[in-house]
Design the sequence.
């Protein structure tokens, strides 16, 4: 039986390779890691016009066959047939961005020079045409000496022509190719510029507008203030815009608790539903509007093309602490969740740079912290304005995010001078075109993020909350005795309180941070469940979490609690992925130790300072 033919998608990052892979393979895909490395191998089955099956491999985005990261090293090895157990692909499909032709043709020439059957997919021509850029695929094909097919992968335009070209690829006359073998990088860049000019039929003023925008947004003095002003607006909006929706959800859950209490007799089952499920899990679900608003801004920044500019702006700042702009994208991803952020460090070439980024990623204020911050801010920070359009609550939230960033930079500075000693490395990043965020893509992204949040509420948070409710509810208290005092959880909290009371934590906090190791949001549901079980009567139980916090906590305690969550690595999943990405327990244990140590120290400093100031 003959070997299955293979084809590889290869090209610069952001060329649309994944969209083209999906268009060619549909649901016939399998994803795993390459053996021995934490680099994803994505393969799928496609069929030529003759009906012959072909295995299609989507290789990591690269800028050169001279690798600068583990991802690029895998691409080089697979393309050149050097990867153990991975035969060299029979055909290369070089994917280039039609609107970034000059830059993408540099790598395309290097691949064509290998002398292998090759087809170029001139992708995203619709976006280029929208900007007034008209390209001649035939002229480019003549210059390169290989077939060039115009495609729009997301709309499956040009897919049939591309598949047909793949079927004929092994019959190519290799002698007609543009000779680039042995050329230096400057020579390839000059050739790419000339070929791009020869392929462009017309270009309007849109590109000049983009250049003018970059002169402002990437300016060394104007760029950073614009970025931080945008972030400031985002956190103001998280509170100002979300409040009506969050109040409506809270009112709905309170009403549902009342219905259950009115319909069911007193007992363990009713307490389970009202105290464990509705009060516990519901106290987290009410923060869904804040999550959606935050991610609406993040998605808009990504899809508009501004996110890459933010990485460029931050490169200079990060160089001071021994990192580069290449670390910015993983750290920015960690604002959503540290898990994909840590996984994104695979694109970082320098191992010490990558390790440092992994170790500081949990300090980025992930979306799981938002419910914790929101409930404490709502309880203890007045909803007043401190200037035109500036709310105090949003200002405090912005300050907490800044504290996480500053903490991460300070930790990186120390790590790069001690256990991960090394200097900052440079990086290359492609600046995508500016565009209006597609509403459909925005809607899909927001739905996915909302679904992830709700799924966590229905799984991890639900299980942790119910487990805590059981530990709080048994054994039953004797007459006159507090249920929390009599419970298993109460005895555990008493032991924890000895350690945590010096930094201002009360027993309820001591109890809440244990189940919050499953997920940070559990801290909110744990507090809500604890106060619900502790309620002396139905009126106290119905008060809600915020009034109970205001009645039982001092402001120094609340501020110390916020400081703890800026630093504490309260997420088992993050620890697990750090173990996988560092191939052992040494660095995850180190990460746990230094982050919990920092959380304890800064929570204590916050509490003692607040008490000294008379707050």
Sequence:
């Amino acid at each position: 039986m003959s070997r299955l033919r293979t084809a590889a998608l290869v090209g610069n990052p952001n060329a649309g390779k994944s969209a083209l892979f999906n268009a060619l393979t549909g649901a016939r895909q399998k994803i795993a890691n390459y053996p021995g490395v934490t680099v994803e191998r994505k393969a799928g089955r496609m069929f030529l016009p003759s009906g012959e099956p072909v295995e299609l491999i989507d290789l990591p985005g690269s800028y050169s066959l001279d690798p600068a990261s583990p991802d690029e090293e895998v691409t080089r090895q697979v393309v050149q047939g050097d990867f153990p157990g991975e035969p060299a692909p029979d055909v290369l499909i070089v994917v280039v961005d039609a609107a970034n032709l000059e830059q993408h043709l540099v790598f395309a020439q290097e691949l064509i020079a290998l002398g292998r059957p090759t087809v170029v997919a001139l992708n995203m021509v619709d976006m280029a045409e929208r900007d007034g850029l008209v390209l001649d695929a035939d002229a480019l094909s003549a210059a390169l000496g290989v077939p060039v097919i115009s495609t729009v992968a997301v709309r499956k335009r040009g897919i049939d022509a591309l598949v047909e070209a793949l079927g004929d690829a092994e019959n190519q006359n290799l002698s007609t190719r543009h000779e680039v073998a042995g050329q230096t990088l400057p020579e390839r860049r000059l050739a790419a510029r000339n070929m791009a000019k020869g392929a462009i039929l017309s270009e309007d003023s849109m590109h000049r507008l983009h250049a003018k925008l970059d002169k402002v947004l990437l300016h060394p003095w104007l760029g950073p203030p614009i970025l931080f002003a945008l972030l400031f607006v985002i956190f103001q909006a998280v509170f100002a815009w979300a409040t009506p929706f969050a109040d409506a959800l809270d009112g709905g859950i309170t009403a549902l608790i009342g219905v259950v209490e009115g319909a069911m007799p007193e007992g363990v089952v009713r307490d389970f539903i009202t105290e464990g499920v509705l009060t516990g899990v519901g106290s987290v679900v009410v923060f869904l509007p804040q999550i959606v608003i935050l991610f609406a801004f993040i998605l808009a920044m990504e899809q508009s093309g501004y996110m890459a500019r933010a990485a460029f702006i931050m490169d200079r700042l990060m160089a001071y602490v021994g990192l580069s702009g290449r670390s910015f994208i993983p750290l920015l991803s960690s604002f959503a969740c540290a898990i994909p952020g840590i996984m994104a460090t695979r694109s970082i070439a320098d191992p010490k740079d990558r390790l440092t980024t992994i170790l500081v990623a949990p300090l980025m204020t992930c979306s799981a912290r938002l419910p914790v911050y929101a409930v404490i801010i709502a309880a203890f920070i007045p909803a007043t304005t401190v200037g035109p359009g500036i709310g105090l609550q949003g200002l405090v939230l912005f300050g907490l995010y800044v504290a996480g960033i500053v903490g991460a930079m300070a930790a990186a500075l120390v790590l790069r001078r001690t256990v991960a000693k090394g200097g900052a490395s440079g990086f290359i990043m492609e600046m995508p075109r500016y565009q209006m965020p597609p509403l459909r893509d925005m809607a899909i992204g927001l739905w996915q993020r909302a679904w992830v949040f709700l799924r966590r509420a229905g799984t991890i948070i639900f299980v942790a909350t119910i487990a805590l409710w059981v530990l709080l509810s048994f054994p039953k208290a004797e007459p006159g005795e507090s249920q929390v005092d009599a419970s298993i959880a109460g005895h555990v909290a008493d032991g924890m309180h000895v350690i945590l009371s010096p930094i201002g934590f009360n027993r309820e906090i001591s109890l809440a941070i244990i189940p919050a190791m499953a997920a940070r949001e559990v801290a909110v549901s744990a507090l809500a469940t604890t106060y619900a079980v502790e309620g002396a009567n139905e009126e106290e139980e119905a008060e809600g979490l915020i009034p109970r916090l205001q009645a039982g906590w001092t402001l120094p305690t609340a501020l110390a609690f916020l400081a703890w969550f800026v630093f504490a690595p309260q997420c088992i999943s993050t620890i697990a992925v750090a173990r996988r990405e560092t191939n052992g327990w040494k660095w995850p244990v180190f990460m746990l130790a230094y982050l919990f140590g920092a959380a304890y120290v800064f929570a204590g400093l916050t509490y003692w300072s607040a008490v000294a100031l008379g707050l």
About this structure: The chain has a mean pLDDT of 86. The CA atoms of residues 122 and 150 lie 5 Å apart.
